[in-house]
Amino acid sequence: MLLDDGKNLGGTIKMKYKVGFVGCGRIAGLKDKPSKDDYIVTHAQAFCRHPLFELSAVTCPNNYKKFQEIWNLPNSYATLDEMLKYEKLDVISVCSPNTYHFPQIVKILKSQNCPKIIFAEKPICLNSSELEKLKSLSNKSNCKILVNHTRRYDPGHIRVRKYIDKGELGNLVCGRCDYYGGWLHNGCHLVDTLRMLFDDDLKVEEVNAGPPGRDNDPCYNVKLSIRNAPVDLIGFDKDYYQIYDSEFRFENGRIRIQDFGKQISIEKALVNKNNDRVLLPLSDSPWKGLDSPIYHAVDLIGNYLEKDEPLSGHGVLIDEVSNTMLFLWKTKEMYEKKK
Questions:
Q1: Of 18, 27, 138, 242, which is least surrounded by CB within 10 A?
Q2: What CATH fold (topology level) applies to the domain 7-150+294-308?
Q3: Closest CA to 316 of 122, 173, 167
Q4: Are 49 and 2 in contact (CB under 8 A)?
Q5: What percent of the chain has pLDDT over 70?
Q6: What would the pLDDT profile of 247-289 be if each residue is shown by its tens digit?
Q7: Which of 153, 37, 29 is nearest to 93 (CA)?
Q8: Is 125 exposed, middle or buried (0-12, 13-18, 19+ CB in 10 A)?
């Protein structure tokens, strides 16, 4: 159940923490509005619905006045420099286009009004040298950088990881994952989810050209070895339609993650009355996936600020997401070298 009264945070709320937004597009909340509906898909909605936070300011070259009006923010700014000069924020959500993430986060980390938390959209940066600089600046400051790898926060995907770890399905035999929208943009989600589910045991066997992605970010078709089993990552042209599905076949069953991760089906191999070994769903399958993961991310931030609960161990701090980014860049380099 989503929070509405702060009870799970252990008592009376002492204060609200101030939140600012860098960028005001779709994921930030420009096309959303304050609501009590259960499903939460934007940064603004997640912070608005959480009892520990208040929405304080936004900066963006365009639409910042409209965003301010939708979310009833006290202040809005045309530039990040202005917001950092006049606002003392506890959390800054970075929701700008990918190419702006690195310079904006550097500017925030160097500011005299540096927040306690930067909650950034992925990819956090575009190359390894930028990554190292962000890690260094973050370690020198008191500011933690969390990356919005949504499946890491999602109760359904966390449940799948624990189920795989139980070993009831046996060893992985093979798998296939379909994605769209670019290797760095959406492939980033896919690779990080695989790292989460299979304990980082990913090895690239072959990389080939895939369909167009978005901007200058193409899709790649990648043959992986995960726990010594072949898993294919297949890009799909979003001009036909968008697809983001995964299927993993084990010795004793199958896991399917469909509809962009919203539906998770678990099947076990059982012998039927004809003495055939067939797949039958668990009694509580399908499981719900992507159950407002961005809200669970905000809840994690709230527990850290209010109760000093650790942020590490969830796979979302900048040091923890490094392997995902390095894997993506290495795979891209492998393709560039073979051209």
A1: 242
A2: Rossmann fold (3.40.50)
A3: 122
A4: yes
A5: 95
A6: 999 999 999 999 999 999 999 999 988 999 999 999 999 999 9
A7: 29
A8: buried
Calculate the CA 281 to chain-centre distance.
28
Give the long-range contacts of residues 25-28, CB within 8 A, separation 24 or more. 25/60, 25/63, 25/95, 25/96, 25/97, 27/95, 27/121, 28/58, 28/67, 28/93, 28/95
Residues in the chain: 339
Residue with tokens 């008191």: 142
Residues of the chain with CATH 3.30.360.10: 155-290+325-338
Q: Return all residues near 114 (Cβ < 8 A) that are at least 6 apart.
A: 108, 141, 142, 143
CA distance 230 to 213: 24
In this prediction, residue 320 carries a pLDDT of: 92
CATH 3.40.50.720 residue ranges for the chain: 7-150+294-308
String of DSSP letters for 102-119 = HHHHHHHHHSTT--SEEE
Tokens of 32: 């959303």
- pLDDT tens digits for 52-108? 999 999 999 999 999 999 999 999 999 999 999 999 999 999 999 999 999 999 999
Cβ-contact 138, 132 below 8 angstroms: no
Per the structure block, which two tokens stand in for 178?
A: 């379909």
CATH 3.30.360.10 fits 155-290+325-338, yes or no: yes
